[in-house]
Every structure is written in structure tokens, then in C-alpha cells.
Automatic annotation (TrEMBL), chain A:
Protein's name in the database: Cysteine desulfurase activator ATPase
InterPro entries: AAA+_ATPase, ABC_transporter-like_ATP-bd, FeS-cluster_ATPase_SufC, P-loop_NTPase
Domain ABC transporter intervals: 2-246
Superkingdom field: Bacteria
Organism: Idiomarina baltica OS145
Source taxonomy: Bacteria, Pseudomonadati, Pseudomonadota, Gammaproteobacteria, Alteromonadales
Membership in a protein family: Belongs to the ABC transporter superfamily. Ycf16 family.
TrEMBL record, chain B:
SUPFAM superfamilies (UniProt xref): Stabilizer of iron transporter SufD (SSF101960)
Residues spanning the signal sequence: none
Stored InterPro entries: Fe-S_cluster_assembly_SufBD, SUF_FeS_clus_asmbl_SufB, SUF_FeS_clus_asmbl_SufBD_core, SUF_FeS_clus_asmbl_SufBD_sf, SufBD_N
Family: Belongs to the iron-sulfur cluster assembly SufBD family.
Pfam family, one: SUFBD_core
Start and end residues of each SUF system FeS cluster assembly SufBD core domain: 208-449
Protein name in the entry: Cysteine desulfurase activator SufB
Domain SUF system FeS cluster assembly SufBD N-terminal: 143-200
């Protein structure tokens, strides 16, 4: 599904990712944990091709294609999804319009017919229900005036509707209470079908109680310093990141 | 296509056609004699000629306004031809094959059906054609309701008293430099009359009329809504109108008598010039409406064209409880310049006005909102609400807001809100990450920004306006 080899990337003048390797097979869930400033969010942005995130060296292969050669929207159309930590507002554009354009852009890229309004509405209503959002949510402007929890659930709703091959969840647990966390986790779990893969980026072990990973990686100073099974996450919870020999700086990546 | 026309016109002039009736275009230049000839060709009544001449004499004493936030080379008014007769059917393209393919490509993107494309492109429509019966049905329906909708030149013959009664009552012939020029030399335009208590059975559109006759660059439109009547009027079409002339100085006058309502919507997409700012239309337009008691006038405009725009559709709220509205989307790109806005003149008691202006600037363009809200001494309890939002795309463009507020009545309330925002990288990235290409993303963000105004447009117009923005934004990202 995804193979990252010796990836180095920088934001402006600062190199953040320094020699990262990762291999993800279909159906696998990989958790990436690490202290603040380790490069967790940067990894998601680099993989999705955001402007200003420059790859210095390395290779990324996504289902046989060179991911780094593709435009942002081409990567998305190829099945790469990023659930944002802080989704931005688009005033005046309803969730419904936005998602209809999005779903149809993906379908078009796959050579499928666009959905009719009725078909789309049916799909949107189901997704809405799955993440416990009221239906009038679809009529509201994209992320406009949404609470933190609503924004996160909205991201998961988009994930459910777009059915990507690989979803990167960027701290989808931050700022959520236990109930909301459960909703987010259920949404993600409902999409686990043995084919679809996930990268779950999180600072805390908490989310992993609800979304059980196959592998856990610790990211520190731009590379993966330790990999293991779910038990590694428990270890982190018990001992923090201090064992990495660096302070938990509290700097945002 | 306009090049072909230019060439054709130039050829005829070179060939020395001087006969007043047969020649299609007057030689360049403007003096009283030109106005007399123009009036004579149109067979106008004597009073109309006098009116034109008075306007011309006023114009001579006026100077071109320079206060607008626009910059363009001085116009040589003697270098313009002031009369161009409708081209005869035989000179029109015989089929779409003869029409500029670029124009057709745009029509296609707008989703305009084929037979409408033919009409828009001025293809000679023969009797077998569907649309002829469309036009006929529509005329019959209007006549039944007693609505008059015809070219103003025709109205001068058929309904001279009505025209004489209202012409120049809202925009006096010497109102401003461009209005005076228009009053002196206007060649055609629309006349609409809605009788007392009649609700016009359909949306009136210049589109239908333009098929019959090509209008000149000095249009004059007069709409009179008698007591308790209602009309919705759509101006222009969303297709690019290639005009062989540079200067477009139109005047629109609306008269809404007691309890009447006029809704006037414009989608303007004149040629904006090339990316270096060469060519394009100078759109210097005076639009004003007069509201009597309990009357309502609503201006909605979507402006994406013209090299330079100077335009302030206004309402004089003379009658008590009258309502004025102005909803505007002005998009500039390339080297376009727009100085546009409105004037709300509150004279009557409890008059209300709402102004929603959305300016979008891209490329190297400059987009200014200029608005006046005046509360007269008699405007007891009057209210105004103004919202003025600017959206910037890229960092080479400019947005400017010039609000003027004058209040002579302490009980009047005036509210003004203004915001400036940018299409952010975060928004673009979110859209692209969800599979949209950058152009689609920007057009969606811009459409969201304009939603409050699009809501005011008649439905089919709103859809076309959205598509028009999309086309206009092409190439403004990246």
C-alpha cells in the first residue's frame, strides 16, 4: 500500500523529517506516537503534498505510483485521505455542496459516473447518522461555527463518504471527551475492512484503546526510533516519552 | 466576430457610403448636426430632439469626473461614431459555423442550449425556427396583461406621452457627464410600462429584445411601474458580449409609484480587455430608481466584465415606508478596475435600505466599493444596513471601501459593516485534499462568499452567475 524510504523533509528552512522509513500493507492500522515537535503532523502534510512542505530526499510509493510526483488533488483522488487536526472554515459553502463536489471529483477520477443528488443525499444522511450528527449539519457552512468535537466528527464523516484506501488521522482525538472519542473511533472502526489502511497519529495512548492498532511506532526527532505492537503504546503511557532522552518540549510540529 | 464587423464597417466607410439612410455607421465625431441627423433617422418627435440638444449643450459645459478610483487614458469623444444602424439580416452569420469558436466554447461552458447560442451570436433566425414562436407567445402573454415592453425608439412612436412624462425624471439629462452624453446621443434601449395593479406575468429580459435588434453603446432604459404593480427585469446575458465600441455609457431609470415593486437584475460580462489591460469596455453607467410611497426597488448585480467600471445603481426613497435594496458581486481580475457601489437617498419617513456588496479581486485588479447613505431631514425613523465584504485572491490585487454617510435626522439609524478576507492556503489545501482541483476550489470558495447576493437573483440567473464566476476565475490561481 505505502512504502516510505529514507524520507527527509523540511518546512521553510528547518528539516523536520530526517530519514523516515515505513511500510504499510493493505488492511493494517499503524499508530504513530511521539512527543510534540517530533514531526507527526508534518508527516501527514508531506504525504498529502501540502505547499511549503518540501521533500529533500527519499521515496514514497503509494500503490505502485510515485506519490511525491503527484499534485495534492491527484493524491487524494488516488485514495489518500488526511483527517485534519484543525479543519478550516469555508464560509457560505454548505457541507452538502462541498462533499458532493468532493465525492464526485473522486468518482470522476476513477472513471465512474457522478452521483445524482438523490443518491448523494442518501449516502450523506447515512454518514451523518454514523457519527451522531444531526441532518441539518449538512446544510451548514463547512466547519463554520462548528465546535471542536463537531469538526472532528465532520472529518470522520468525510472519511466514511470518501472511502479512501489510506487514511491519515492527525490527532483526531485531541480536545475530545470520552463520548466523542467513542464516536470517532466507531466511525474509523466501521471502515476497517481488511483492505483499507490507516495511519493514526496521536500524542496519547487513549485513542488506541478504541482503535486497536496492528503496529505502533514512536517518532522522535524526525525518524521512527522504535516499533512494536499495541503493547508499545501502553509502555508510552506508563513512562511517557522521557526515555527518549529529550524533554517533551510542547512545541507544535 | 467583432473584428469582422469592424472590417466590414471600415470597408463600407472607405467605399464612401454617405447616404444617410443606407450607411450603417456615422462618421466619427459629435456636434449638434450629428444629433439632428440621429434624431431624424429615428423619426423622433420634435420635443425629443430639443431634449437631446439641451443635454448636449449641458454636456459641453461639464467635465469628465475624475474622483473614481480608476485610471484610464483620456477618451477622445470626437473619435467615436455615435450612430450605428442595426445590421441587416444578410450581414449576420448564417450559421454557428461562421461564429467565433472562442465565443461558442464559452456558451458551451455556460450550458446555454444550442438554439439560444444561435440567438445570442446574432445568427439570422428564419421562420421555421422554434424560438420565433417563443418570442411570439411571450409577446401575446404580455399584451394580454397590458404590459408594454419594447425598444425605447419604438415607444417614442407608439407611446410618446408616456415616454415624455417619465424620461429624465429620475436621471435628469444633465445629471452627470456620462448621463448628459447619453441623453444627447442614446440610440436605443428598453421601455417597460406595467399598468396599475398588474403583476408582470414573466421575468422580462433584454435578451429577447436584443435578438430583434442590436443595441448601441448608449442605451437608455426606462421602466415605469404604476401603483401596486410588480416587475422583475433581467439585463444582459451571461455570454460575453463583444462590442465593437470602447465606451459604454448607459442610463437606466426606474419609477416605482405607490406600492409598486421593481426588481432589476444585471449580469454583466462585457469584454474586460486582455491580460495586459489592452482593450476592453469602459462601462460608465448611471442607474437610478425613484420609490414613491410603500414602493420597493431592488438592484442585484453580478459584474465580472469591463476594463473600467463606474457604476452606482441608486435608490431615491422619496415616499414614506419605501424600501431600497442593493445586492452586488463585483469580480475583477487581470488589470480590470471597478469603482462601484450604490447611493441610498432616504427622504421619506420609515424608509429602509439594505446594501450587501461583495467585491472579489484577483490578478492585478483594483476593486472599490463606493457607497452613499444619506438620511434627509424628513427621514424620520429611517434605517440602513450596509455590509461590505472584500475577498482577495493572490497578493497583487487591491480592495478599497469608500463609504459616505450623511445623516440629517437624529432618529435615523445607519449601520455599516465591512470585512476583508483572503482565499487562504488552508482553505485551498482542504479542498484539494478532498480531490478538487485548485480552480474548482477557488470558484467554490468565491461562490460561498457571494451566496447572500446570489440568493437574490432569479433562480436560472443564479446558476448562470455561479458558472460565470467559475469561468471568470479561470487561470487566476497558481
Amino acid at each position: 500500500m505505502l512504502t516510505i524510504k529514507d524520507l527527509h523533509a523540511r518546512v521553510e528552512e528547518k528539516t523536520i523529517i530526517k530519514g523516515l522509513n515505513l511500510e504499510i500493507k493493505p488492511g493494517e492500522v499503524h499508530a504513530i506516537m511521539g512527543p510534540n515537535g517530533a514531526g507527526k503532523s508534518t508527516l501527514g502534510y508531506v504525504l498529502s503534498g501540502r505547499d511549503g512542505y518540501e521533500v529533500e530526499q527519499g521515496e514514497v510509493n503509494f500503490n505502485g505510483a510515485n506519490l511525491l510526483d503527484m499534485e495534492v488533488e491527484e493524491r487524494a483522488q488516488a485514495g489518500l485521505f488526511l483527517a485534519f487536526q484543525y479543519p478550516v472554515e469555508i464560509p457560505g459553502v454548505s457541507n452538502m455542496e462541498f462533499m458532493k463536489e468532493s465525492v464526485n471529483a473522486m468518482r470522476k477520477a476513477r472513471g465512474e459516473d457522478e452521483l445524482s443528488s438523490a443518491e448523494f443525499l442518501k449516502m450523506a444522511k447515512e454518514a451523518c447518522k454514523q457519527v451522531n450528527l444531526p441532518l441539518d449539519f449538512l446544510k451548514r457552512g463547512v466547519n463554520e461555527g462548528f465546535s471542536g468535537g463537531e469538526k472532528k466528527r465532520n472529518e470522520i464523516m468525510q472519511l466514511i463518504m470518501l472511502k479512501p484506501k489510506l487514511a491519515i488521522l492527525d490527532e483526531s482525538d485531541s480536545g475530545l471527551d470520552v463520548d466523542a472519542l467513542q464516536v470517532v473511533a466507531n466511525g474509523v472502526n466501521s471502515q476497517r475492512d481488511g483492505e483499507r489502511s490507516f495511519i493514526v497519529v496521536t500524542h496519547y495512548q487513549r485513542l488506541l484503546d478504541f482503535i486497536e492498532p496492528d503496529y505502533v511506532h514512536i517518532l522522535a526527532q524526525g525518524k521512527i526510533v522504535k516499533s512494536g505492537g499495541p503493547e508499545l503504546a501502553k509502555e508510552v503511557e506508563a513512562s511517557g516519552y522521557a526515555w527518549l532522552g529529550q524533554a517533551d518540549e510542547g512545541e507544535k510540529a | 466576430m467583432s473584428e469582422q464587423i469592424d472590417q466590414a464597417l471600415a470597408r463600407k466607410y472607405d467605399a464612401g457610403f454617405v447616404s444617410e439612410i443606407e450607411s450603417e455607421t456615422f462618421p466619427k465625431g459629435l456636434d449638434e448636426d450629428v444629433i439632428r441627423r440621429l434624431s431624424a433617422i429615428k423619426g423622433e418627435p420634435e420635443w425629443m430632439l430639443e431634449w437631446r440638444l439641451k443635454a448636449y449643450r449641458t454636456w459641453l459645459k461639464q467635465t469628465e469626473p475624475e474622483w473614481a478610483h480608476v485610471d484610464y487614458p483620456k477618451i477622445d469623444y470626437q473619435d467615436i461614431s455615435y450612430y450605428s444602424a442595426p445590421k441587416s439580416m444578410k450581414d449576420k452569420p448564417k450559421s454557428l459555423d461562421e461564429v467565433d469558436p472562442e465565443l461558442l466554447r464559452t456558451y458551451e461552458k455556460l450550458g446555454i442550449p444550442l438554439h439560444e447560442q444561435e440567438m445570442l451570436a446574432g445568427v439570422a433566425v428564419d421562420a421555421v425556427f422554434d424560438s420565433v414562436s417563443v418570442v411570439t407567445t411571450f409577446r401575446e402573454k404580455l399584451e394580454e396583461a397590458g404590459v408594454i415592453f419594447c425598444p425605447i425608439s419604438e415607444a417614442l412612436h407608439k407611446y410618446p406621452d408616456l415616454v415624455k412624462k417619465y424620461l429624465g425624471t429620475v436621471v435628469p439629462r444633465g445629471d452627470n457627464y456620462f448621463a448628459a452624453l447619453n441623453s444627447a446621443v442614446f440610440t436605443d434601449g428598453s421601455f417597460v410600462y406595467i399598468p396599475k395593479g398588474v403583476r408582470c406575468p414573466m421575468e422580462l429580459s433584454t435578451y429577447f429584445r436584443i435578438n430583434e435588434q442590436n443595441t448601441g453603446q448608449f442605451e437608455r432604459t426606462l421602466i415605469v411601474a404604476e401603483e401596486g404593480s410588480y416587475v422583475s427585469y433581467l439585463e444582459g446575458c451571461t455570454a460575453p458580449q463583444r462590442d465593437e465600441n470602447q465606451l459604454h455609457a448607459a442610463v437606466v431609470e426606474l419609477v416605482a409609484l405607490d406600492d409598486a415593486e421593481i426588481k432589476y437584475s444585471t449580469v454583466q460580462n462585457w469584454y474586460p480587455g486582455d491580460e495586459n489591460g489592452k482593450g476592453g469596455i469602459y462601462n460608465f453607467v448611471t442607474k437610478r430608481g425613484l420609490c414613491e410611497k410603500n414602493a420597493k426597488i431592488s438592484w442585484t448585480q453580478v459584474e465580472t466584465g469591463s476594463a473600467v467600471t463606474w457604476k452606482y445603481p441608486s435608490c431615491i426613497l422619496k415616499g414614506d415606508n419605501s424600501v431600497g435594496e442593493f445586492y452586488s458581486v463585483a469580480l475583477t481580475r487581470g488589470k480590470q478596475q471597478a469603482d462601484t457601489g450604490t447611493k441610498m437617498i432616504h427622504l421619506g419617513k420609515n424608509t429602509k435600505s439594505t446594501i450587501i456588496s461583495k467585491g472579489i479581486s484577483a490578478g492585478y485588479s483594483n476593486n472599490a466599493y463606493r457607497g452613499l447613505v444619506r438620511m434627509g431631514p424628513g427621514a424620520e425613523g429611517a434605517r440602513n444596513f450596509t455590509e461590505c465584504d472584500s475577498l482577495l485572491i493572490g497578493d497583487k490585487c487591491g480592495a478599497h471601501t469608500f463609504p459616505y454617510i450623511e445623516s440629517s435626522n437624529p432618529s435615523a439609524i445607519v449601520e455599516h459593516e465591512a470585512t476583508t478576507s483572503k482565499v487562504s492556503d488552508d482553505q485551498l489545501f482542504l479542498c484539494q485534499q478532498r480531490g478538487l482541483d485548485p480552480e474548482k476550489a477557488v470558484s467554490m470558495i468565491v461562490n460561498g462568499f457571494c451566496k447572500e447576493v446570489f440568493r437574490e437573483l432569479p433562480m436560472e440567473f443564479a446558476v448562470e452567475a455561479g458558472k460565470l464566476l467559475e469561468i471568470s476565475l479561470e487561470g487566476s490561481v497558481g
